[in-house]
Amino acid sequence: MNAPVPLIEVEQLEAWYGRRRVLHGVDFAVNAGEIRVIMGGSGSGKSTLLRHLLGLQRPVSGRVKLFGVDLREASERALLDVRKRIGVSFQGGALLTSLTVGENVALPLREHTTLDESTIRIMSRLKLEVVNLGGFQDLMPSQLSGGMVKRAALARAIVMDPRLLFFDEPSAGLDPVVSAELDELILRLRDALRMTIVVVTHELESAFKIADTITVLDQGNILTTGTVAAVRASDNERIQDLLNRRPREVQVDADAYLKRLTEEEA
Ligand SMILES: Nc1ncnc2c1ncn2[C@@H]1O[C@H](COP(=O)(O)OP(=O)(O)OP(=O)(O)O)[C@@H](O)[C@H]1O
Predict the structure, then answer these.
(1) Does 42 contact ligand 1 (Cβ within 6 A)?
(2) Is domain 1-84+209-266 annotated with CATH 3.20.20.450?
(3) I need a surface site. Which of 18, 35, 139, 219 has the fewest CB within 10 A?
(4) How would you classify residue 236: left for phi > 0, otherwise alpha for psi between -120 and 50, otherwise beta?
(5) Ligand 1 centroid vs 100 CA: distance in angstroms?
(6) What are the structural domain ranges in the chain?
């Protein structure tokens, strides 16, 4: 049997803001074909990790490899090649309000390919169909509901057929039914389009539904990576706090909390 191929490899990643360390030597790998959910309380370092995975923030130390390419050592050309193979759907959707839905979805094709106009239009419409927005290409973003904006942003993120898709807080601001629809869509992308998907989310229900594996971050450290069942069964107190929505802040006094926020490291 072939060993699983990691599309993402992170070794001993550290991140600092000023004199404060917010990622403490994180090791992290994601194999092809899996949906990995990154979970953690507010301020645990999820967004910082995501920004490093996307190459938007350079590691102070440690390394991040996507498709085997070390982002710190790669040439501009190699980085561009990596970027063409990843899709990103950020919180809020971030559609350009002055463009139609179809034009928004087509943007990456215009930027990264030399395809002719009619091919671009067909590919954009196909991706709108994948996210159940077939026929909505001529609407403006302001005419869409919150859930539809998310799906349109997802269509744009997958228009180049990325092997690796990053999804930041898919459920944020959505009602439970719309959020559940989006979960189904994420599962479909993995199964039908064979994408590898990394999702950052606060939503436990959504995480348990879509994840093949979950990585739990806490104060810049990975507490565990495992299957949904393994994470649920963990006897780690912090993990159980998160799963039972017991915030850490209520368990520490104000002085200790302030000290942690202003902590300086040599
Ligand atoms: N630009 C920045 N400058 C200074 N500190 C920052 C900056 N961005 C994040 N931090 C701090 O780094 C720590 C990790 O933040 P990060 O945004 O990665 O966490 P998070 O898990 O994504 O949180 P949330 O779920 O609230 O978005 C937090 O303590 C945060 O205050």
Answers:
(1) yes
(2) no
(3) 18
(4) beta
(5) 33
(6) 1-84+209-266
